[in-house]
Design goal:
Layout (H helix, E strand, L loop, with lengths): L2 H27 L4 H22 L4 H4 L3 H4 L1 H23 L2 H7 L3 H13 L5 H18 L12 H20 L7 H22 L8 H14 L2 H12 L3 H5 L4 H14 L5 H26 L2 H4 L4
């Protein structure tokens, strides 16, 4: 198998695994609290990432880490996995899985907006269109297509789902200048995240229900949402001739996820969800076109303003 075929295989496997997670979130929340799920999943992911480093013969690198290299993870680990998954799981607890899952895809647009104050970037014409399309899609989903009435079944759930995109975008923006190896950084982040989620659970008296369904779900999330899948995706990007050849496969994820949500959870997929998803994906596509055009401009025009 040549490198490009390996890239496609790794990317498709990652997409398929990510597509199952929304269903697992909802199933696991029937048996365990969000706090317990975040703690067990973070711990599981830390152990999995340590195993990956060991398999790569890089476990000794952990012992060479300095306080200076670890310090950024104090904040990054608080954002992801701790805050991001705690907020996201609470949103899943209040919303239909299809709603929370599709709204989550607006994070790329949220990152564009946050890049203005944080990275001093500009928003041009096409990016305004991308923002409008994506947030119109989110509004269609949360109102189930009743835009004129603006009736939202769970305002808190919708707010948490949108808030999770802010946390995720902040995580990537703050980590943009991080030079540490991605797998090693992710391991350190999840170690801190495990500590934070453990302390939070104790302070707030979170209940850990002794049932195998919840624990198995949490471990599945830790392995396939937080750990192995990320490594598979990074491997696909490295093996591929161009990132565009595999990055386009991520568009399969929301549709596969809706398939699992319908057939495993039994949720009837609402027309408003499909329409809203169409708007969000259209916004993401326009955003990519805008980014591509910005790269083609002379450096003086494309670089962020100071």
């Amino acid at each position: 198998m040549n490198n490009q075929k390996k890239a496609y295989f790794h990317a498709l496997l990652a997409v398929c695994l990510w597509s199952t997670v929304a269903t697992v979130f909802k199933l696991s929340l029937r048996h365990q609290s969000p706090e317990a799920l975040v703690f067990v999943a973070s711990l599981t992911s830390s152990l999995v990432l340590a195993g990956i480093l060991a398999a790569q013969g890089r476990l000794r690198e952990i012992a060479t880490l300095t306080w200076t290299s670890i310090r950024p993870s104090l904040l990054l680990g608080a954002l992801n996995p701790f805050l991001y998954y705690l907020v996201l799981l609470r949103a899943y607890d209040l919303l239909r899985a299809q709603e929370a899952q599709v709204i989550n895809y607006t994070w790329a647009i949220t990152m564009t907006i946050l890049s203005v104050p944080m990275l001093k970037q500009r928003i041009h014409g096409l990016r305004y269109l991308a923002i409008g399309l994506s947030y119109c899609g989110a509004l269609i989903i949360c109102t189930q297509g009743e835009l004129t009435e603006l009736r939202i079944d769970s305002p808190l759930g919708f707010s948490l789902a949108m808030g999770s995109t802010v946390i995720w975008a902040l995580f990537w923006i703050l980590g943009v200048k991080d030079s540490m190896d991605p797998v090693l950084r992710l391991f350190v982040n999840f170690c801190w995240g495990t500590l934070y989620s453990g302390i939070w659970s104790v302070v707030h008296g979170a209940t850990f229900k002794p049932n195998w369904q919840g624990m198995l779900g949490a471990m599945y999330i830790g392995v396939f949402e937080m750990g192995v899948t990320f490594v598979l995706w990074m491997s696909a990007l490295k093996l591929s001739r161009t990132t565009a050849q595999v990055s386009a496969l991520i568009y399969l994820a929301p549709f596969l996820s809706l398939f699992f949500i319908h057939f495993l959870l039994g949720e009837a997929i609402l027309p408003s969800t499909l329409v809203g998803l169409g708007f969000i994906l259209a916004g993401t596509t326009v955003q990519k076109i805008a980014d591509s055009q910005a790269k083609d401009k002379p450096e003086s025009q494309a670089a962020p303003t100071q």
